[in-house]
## 1
Amino acid sequence: MEYLEEIARMLTLEIGTKNKGFTLIELIVVIFIMGIASSYIVLNSSIFYSIEKSDKSLESDLIFISEESIFLGSPILWHASLDQNKFYIIKNGLKHERKDLSERLSFSQLYSDNVTVIINTGDGNKYQLNDEITSFPLITFYPSGENSGARIEIRSKQLLTEINMKQNGEVFSAYE
């Protein structure tokens, strides 16, 4: 019993000492610093999310074109520039333009105006896209789900993105 009374007396002594806590100014400074840190994190993560979203939509467009080739049972040829695309379907040995697919894969819409796009084709050639549509197909999508293969490098001021297309139809991105 005496032991409990001694503990109670010690606790009252400690509570009665100069235990002030935090001042209002200290609390405001801490909250201000936490606000700046959290806004920095949110802004940076949203920038990376928008970059990743662009790449994912480009990947999904490439997968869609591959699936369209499978569905139609015909090869699809992709001709491109920075601003526009042309897709041709080979039916009965003739090239037919598919204008409904041309809205896909526009690099100037997905990325900033100061983007550089270099496409390394499956046959080892390297092409930098400009304002003119290529006269030759950059990638051919086959009805088997395969393609001619390519590595697409998208360079902006802050980031290098690579979208790799394996000839078996697999598509994936890498960032630097």
## 2
Amino acid sequence: MSEHNLWVRIRSNIGHRGHFVRMEFNPEAGIPDVDYCIKGTEGKIELKYAAAAPVRLNTAVFTNGGLRDAQVAWIYTRVRYGGRVWILPQIGELLYLVPGKYCRQFNNMTLHQIEKASAWASDERQISAKDWHQLLAILAELQ
């Protein structure tokens, strides 16, 4: 699995419900991986992948492969001005949707802290259609 496979998973399950574009070429350092628009709501999603959670509960999940400094700066600035930015980490098979306001803390978060900060989380390997719909609703503020 990888960030690319995570993108395929997202696109396959909710990509047809809005306009989702993977930003393969970013003109500015730090711009998140995915740009989306759902029913008039626009936002960005930064994808992160970890093969498994750390064995020790107090160990940060993304000490390696987390947000780069340019990504933290871009997300922080966009959120500060009211933009919608999410961090979508996949840890093992589970997905979490972390609001961008946590970008400065993200690399140092344990699994428990990621779970606590998440606006949405999958609780099993096979995410149901209802769960995907809930994720979509949060991205589009359709609640």
## 3
Amino acid sequence: ESSYANVGSVRNKGYEISIGWKSKINQDWGYFINGNFSHIDNEVTSLNGQPFLDRGMAEFRQRLVVGQPMDVFYGWDIVGVYQTQAEVNADAVAQYANGQSAGTVKPGYFKYRDVNGDGILDANDRVYLGSPVPTYYYGGSLGMNYKNWDLSVTFYGQGGNVILNRNRAE
């Protein structure tokens, strides 16, 4: 029988800045401008002694690992695409894979980084690829008003994260 418990802790730290200006041009016309930016560092600080917790699907593994951001992607690092058969023939990782199963690596297939340099792509070559948790957010607004009417435009965004395009991956 298994049970579930909250066994970890996470640290979030960062800053947020916001600035705005509002003014009147004359009795009937006015304008405003606002902007904001925030930055956050997210880190798993404890898993109650466990080295990691796997999450997500096996094909698109995510992990909780002390010292990494939440749900960091864990897998093989793609360094390019094999362009020619000669490039496949010159790569030790591709040759090892083709020796195990004839013709499994061909031009057009992804080329993965052999992290430990042993010429074999295996579990020892997986790395942390980045987190889906954004590290910064930004936004702003511009507007003007005339008597009782106003018009404004707002924008916002985020970045510093890695996303998974499951449609493309599958």
